[in-house]
Amino acid sequence: MPVTIPQDLPAALVLKQENIFFMTKERAIHQDIRPLQVALLNLMPNKSRTEEQFLRLLGNTALQVELTFLTTATYQSKNTPVSYLQTFYQTFDQVRDRHFDALIITGSPVETLAFEEVAYWQELTSILSWADLHVYASFFVCWAAQAALYHYYGIGKHQLPKKLSGVYSHSVRKKGTPLVRGFDDVFWAPHSRHTALDEESLYAHEDLEVLADSKEAGVYVAASKDGRKTFVTGHSEYDELTLHDEYQRDLAAGMNPQIPVNYYENGEVAVRWRSHAHLLFSNWLNYQVYQNTPYQLEEISKALQHS
């Protein structure tokens, strides 16, 4: 089944060229299937590229997904025209009375700041608190994973001596968990960040479990034991050239970046993470969302109050 997107979203052209199955809302309403209602809070500067990355993964499952794109009201992106945001995005105030099967929050280039110093921190914490009773399952990526772990569990972060950039080998730690079902014992995933979690606190927390980690990159996938919150510290959604473009950007800025590790082979990008990325998102949508969320969206609050 396809992912459902707005009629004129620019990412549709890219997806069509790549033969990713999607449909417009106009076509979807004629089908007798309730699509999963998924909100995606896009905190990345390049909105359209991030949309494409997540749509590739959400559009490659057997489930129909209807996406609602969200942006912050308290911070205006400098890289995306206001007209684009007004056409394709909504703010929290516009959806606060709705219920969603799932919420995805992307990474954000604010990780070197203390959480409370981020311009939209208060708005984000309001969204996280709202999600507890309005969203069945949430998926947090990179900085959003750090922010959510801090908000929900008080788990902090610390600055790394140098940026962690590259594609790293990971090991599955909880093989019987549905979220990592079908994963190879060892798999690859990209990381791109300046900070790391307080892993001692994470491993010790009785409500959390680490599902996959890396000797070089640390914890990769963690989740609440009730399955409702998934935290991914890397960027499985990254496309082939994202790390390359970030490296070139940092070079041009005079930051003297480290070459992304395990990324180039003979001068070419070697994509090692694509199959795992698709499996991660399909497992999450199937086992953590579709198999558990109430069919009637208005029943979500009742279900969560009694869980």
Can you walk me through this structure?
The protein is α/β, with parallel strands linked by helices. It has one domain (3-156, 197-236, 273-305): Class I glutamine amidotransferase (GATase) domain (Rossmann fold). It contains eleven helices and 14 strands. The chain has helices spanning 11-17, 25-28, 47-58, 82-88, 92-95, 121-134, 143-153, 199-204, 242-252, 274-290, 300-305; strands spanning 3-5, 22-24, 36-41, 65-70, 89-90, 100-105, 135-141, 157-172, 186-197, 208-214, 218-224, 229-232, 264-265, 268-269. Strands 1, 2, 3, 4, 5, 6, 7, 8, 9, 10, 11 and 12 form a twelve-stranded mixed beta sheet that branches. Strands 13-14 form a two-stranded antiparallel ribbon. Helix 1 packs across helix 3. The chain starts with a strand and ends with a helix. The mean pLDDT is 91. Pathway: Amino-acid biosynthesis; L-methionine biosynthesis via de novo pathway; O-acetyl-L-homoserine from L-homoserine: step 1/1. It is an enzyme of class 2 (transferase). InterPro entries: Class_I_gatase-like (IPR029062), HST_MetA (IPR005697), MetA_family (IPR033752). The record marks 111 as: Important for acyl-CoA specificity.
Explain briefly what this protein structure is.
This protein is of the alpha/beta class and 307 residues long. Helix content is 32%, strand content 27%.
Helix segment tally: 11
Low-confidence spans: pLDDT under 50, at least 5 residues? none
Count of domain modules: 1
The CATH topology turns out to be: Rossmann fold
Structural class: alpha/beta
Rg, alpha carbons: 18 Å
Specify the helix fraction band.
25-40%
What name goes with the CATH superfamily?
Answer: Class I glutamine amidotransferase (GATase) domain
Largest sheet: 12 strands, mixed
Order of helices and strands: EHEHEHEHEHEHEHEEHEEEHEEHH
Q: What is the 3D shape?
A: globular
Average pLDDT for all residues: 91
* Number of beta strands: 14
CATH class: Alpha Beta
Distance between the termini: 29 Å
β-strand amount = 25-35%
CATH hierarchy: architecture: 3-Layer(aba) Sandwich
GO molecular function, one term: homoserine O-succinyltransferase activity
EC number: 2.3.1.31
Active site: 142, 235, 237
Site (Important for acyl-CoA specificity): 111
